[in-house]
Design goal:
Helix content: 40-55%
Distance between the termini: 49 Å
CATH topology: TIM Barrel
Structural class: alpha/beta
Shape: globular
CATH architecture: Alpha-Beta Barrel
CATH class: Alpha Beta
Number of helices: 12
Strand order of the largest sheet: 1-2-3-4-5-6-7-8
Length: 310
Amino acid sequence: MSNSNRVWFTDVAARDGFQIEPQRVSTETKVETINALGAAGVPCIEATSFVHPKAVPQMADAEEVMKRITRYPGTRYTVLVPNLRGAERALACKPDMITTVVSVSDSHNRANIRRRTFETLNEFEQVAHLVHSAGVTLQGAMSTTFGCAFEGRIPLERVLEVVEHYVALEVDGVVLADTTGMANPAHVRQVIRAIQDRWPDLELHLHFHNTRGMGLANVYAAYLEGVRHFEGSLGGIGGCPFAPGATGNICTEDAVHMFMEMGVETGIDLDRLLEASRDMERALGHELPGQVMKAGRTLDLHPLPPGEAG
């Protein structure tokens, strides 16, 4: 287990969050949200994805978003790509990191991009070559690591096989995503231990959903196993359009608040993060799932009712 008393967050609201919004999110709102996250000191921001606009219409303005954002020193800007063409578009916008994604479950991968899991991984060989040649960091994400709404629990051997393919592509890190919200703390620790036993130097990032209310419990379970990189979504927005019922990424500010209460450093200004979440809620025009933005910090105390003081 790592001895570091610091965790690093990637916020995915601008991509994973906005992609599932029922109404079009303006480019202005996307840019303002990304800039607010940067101003709050979020170490990494997933800014957009370079998918075909017909597949995910909310991401049709990917180039414009990357062109207009302010790049804060100390913050990395990553983008998601599904294929070689997406990687070519992305590299023209000079991201700090490119993330590819594949579903560990064949069923979910077919629902998402009409390919089997290992067909997609084989196609990523060209992507990896292009990204490495450009000198850009490459990260591999694994959807449905902990369960699939179509297939159920994913065998551990299958998870390890997908990790092995990514390691062969020389990725700088792997994101284990609980796309369907089926993870539990014991299962999370089992999967992490199995991967760390095989690849002790591989940097793991954990991406949990709070679909069944276990999101932060799973974050803490991963932390106990030495994981120090997590993904969350401002306000808790988002989900997967290809996984029935899988709404709700963990809320970045709720997770940051939890670690701060535990005395774990995040490098993030929580007050500015909460302000950004409230601003985004107003821009989207509907209530967000985040809890700390509603209740306040644990030690935000209140005056006694009239007549009770003294």
